[in-house]
Amino acid sequence: MEDNNTKHNVLIVDDRPDGLLAMEMILSDMELTLIKAGSGKEALEIVNEYDIALIILDVRMPDIDGIETASLIKEREISKYTPIIFITGYEGEGNSVLKGYKAGAADFLVKPIDPDILKSKVCFFLELHTNRRRLEELSFRLQQSEERYKRVIENAGDAMFIADLETGTIIDTNNKAEELIGMTREEIIGLNMKQLHPPDESGLYSGIFNMHVKDQHSTIEDLYVRHKDGRNIPVDIRTSVIKMNDKKIMAGFLRDITARKKMEEELIRKTESLDEAQRIANIGNWDWDIEKNELRWSDQIYRIFGLEPQEFGATYESFLSMIPLGDRERVIDSVNLSLKKNAPFNLEHRVKGPNGLERFVRERGRVYFNDHGKPSRMVGTVQDITDMKKSESELRKLTMVIEASANIIFITDQTGKIEYINNRFQEITGYGKEEIIGKTPQMLSSGETTSHEYSKLWETILSKRTWRGVFRNKKKDGAFYWANTIISPVLDSRGEIVHFLAIQEDITEKKKSQEKLWYLSNYDPVTGLLNRMRFIELFNEWLSYNEPFNSTGALLHVDIDGFKYINDTYGHISGDEFLRRIGGSIHDNVRALEKHRTSNDEHLLGRIGENEFMLFLPFYEKDEALTAADEIRKGIEEFHYTEKDIRATASIGIALYPAHGATSTELLRATDAAVLRAKKFGHNRSHLYRFEDRDLKNIHSKVKEKELILKALQEGRFEPWFQPILHISENKIRHYEALARLRGEEGEIITPGGFIGAAEMFGLIGAIDRIITTKTMELQAEMQRQGKSISFSMNLSGKVMGDEELLDFLQSKITETGANPRHLIFEITETAAIYDLDRAVRFIEALKEMGCLFSLDDFGVGFTSFVYLREMKVDYIKIDGSFVSKVNVSPQDQLVVRAITGVARGMGIATVAEFVENVDILKFLKLIEVDYAQGYLIGKPLPDLLE
Prior knowledge:
- The chain is an alpha/beta fold.
- Helices cover about 40% and strands about 25% of the residues.
- It is built from 33 helices and 34 strands.
- It has an eight-stranded mixed beta barrel with strand order 26-27-29-30-31-32-33-34.
- Helix 6 (about 145-155) packs antiparallel against helix 15 and helix 27 runs parallel beside helix 28.
- The two termini are about 50 Å apart.
- Residues about 140-145 have low confidence and may be disordered.
């Protein structure tokens, strides 16, 4: 909205400096920014440069006079609505006045200029400028626009016609219009507006249309419309132009004024009371004896003004007092002009009753002169048009809402031919109005919706019910889009269908996301093969279907030897491309084998781990399975990734159905054992499962643990437990370590000792880390929203330091959860030497740039060294518990803990002591200024934080 405190720019144009000075002095005490121009040419340049609210323009100027200057100003888009007040030298310049109005003048002043009149007019036009600016900025959201649109149309008190401004073609109407001209809505829609009028008035209507409507002015006219039975019906017509983006439509309100016409004719002949007729028509009449200065109002005028009939004696002054200041001068000028020019007047203005309620009225008046040519009497009418104004405003707002809607909206006739589309329709489909109006929505069909579905749609909407569904439609350029669609019938007052209203939401991106999620939930994104879950699901379906038929099959577990070296040497991008091509090689080898078989059953091939593939060959016997495994192994051995000169081998475990198991769990367990046996024998070989492989107790146990871990991952049974860490000097707990726990199938809690070894062996530790870190970040974000400043430590294996996928995951999760990076601490828990220190340092630096902190765990034992402290720039070190648990009684442990604390303090690193089990240990740690304490004395790990 425009700021009311902003000064308006007012342009004064006069070739005479004394004229400019005089107007500047008159307006100097007003809150204005005055801009002066000494010629028409200079004025045109200023209009292009400044936002001008009002122009005061002298008529007589050399070079370009005021009339031509005004015409040029009105031709420009930037200033076509800027009001112009002409200054003329004397009252006799009638021809200039007429030319000025035609050129676009809003008002005239005659020199010498009355300062009060000039100020009053400036105030009036600036207020109009402010209101127009405010109206241009209004916009609203679409809220049940179709119902409100119909309600406005049908509840309008007058006959309403909505027409295309460019052609005058009627695109909608209401029941009142049907009653007025005796035609159905179907007969009216498609007619040109001028066809509503008698032939002898069509030219008059065209002139009004061209003069006012195309110039975007509202008009108020009395004309006749032609009834279907041949009668000419006098009507009061109000037209209003609504601009929506680049499209303009015209709203016409027609009221049968037969009764009013008769009444006005009677008023000319006599002044008897017509109160009842006026009450019905909501029109009052007045009679002003100018010579005696006596004014008479009919009762209805009192009612319109919010007064009791004949409450007081009406006077011209009392009438003016009820008109708001913004309209009062315009009314006075119209009356004076009518008296002066012997012309009837016709204008709209507001009136305010004693209760403060404003109403809109339309005034008409005519002047009568005495034998001496002096005005002696003026008679006229007052009509209450408040409801009409509200309907017009509501229609304009609703039309703007529909055009600004984020959804596609179009209206068809009862046969499905499109009559109206909004801008969003054009934006999405690419079709313009001229291409689609008169056509059916079949133009958008992608051909995927069946005739049966269309039949159900028509059955629904023809039964006067709303249809909801989703279409895959086609744009003009051939591209497809998905549309969530609602189609509702529009009924007339008789309950008959006259239109259909369709609202479509473009859900293309949502559909793409759903399809992507479905693909990711069933396929491996790297190789495009089945993922583990989908492979097992399809494998179980095959087993369930073929169990009664004594079928056979072979399950092959293909493990790429040394893949970690390929990843670490050439990077993950090359590693992923290598795996994708290996998957293709396996698929090609199986296809070659299947050409020689009679069975048409498709094999199943999936990627079930980082470097592991699973292949099921239906109806294969032992020898066929061994041959297939050897062909696949040789194919991988011979495979050469030329871009990077990468070669690899594979270890393959084979299990037969039903010899080695009748369920997927049994067969998967058998192939795991078999592939481990193949690796044990030296890699690059295949091994058929043997029952003695079960004697490999450790392998069997790890395989079983692997299955438990995989199942727990699938069922979401890994969860973080939190052990509190005490800030020793403050004696406060604001820090917790998140520890992984596995909830068993019976609800029991399994500590890391029961699953970490197998998770690391089978490459599953990363999946567990992702779950624990995600849930911990979510908790930290929730604590932060509650206003609690809590930090959390999370463990990362030294083996994953430098893993770019893990880095991307952690960075995205921090952003996604909203966790505060300053309250996230990652602990490097591996005591073995980090594989690539440079990559680990880059990994740490990337997270520290986000604000995260790092801690080095188990300091003082294993491979953790001062090199790590120097290179990694960690924020915390954890003093290994083996030095802390007896520090209260062991001088040697005290010496080590003092030394570590001193080095850490010198490097600006905080210290955390583990295994703090009693008060004496805590007292010693406080004495030597260790920063934090963790252990059972402080608190045990629990699923929830301490209160």
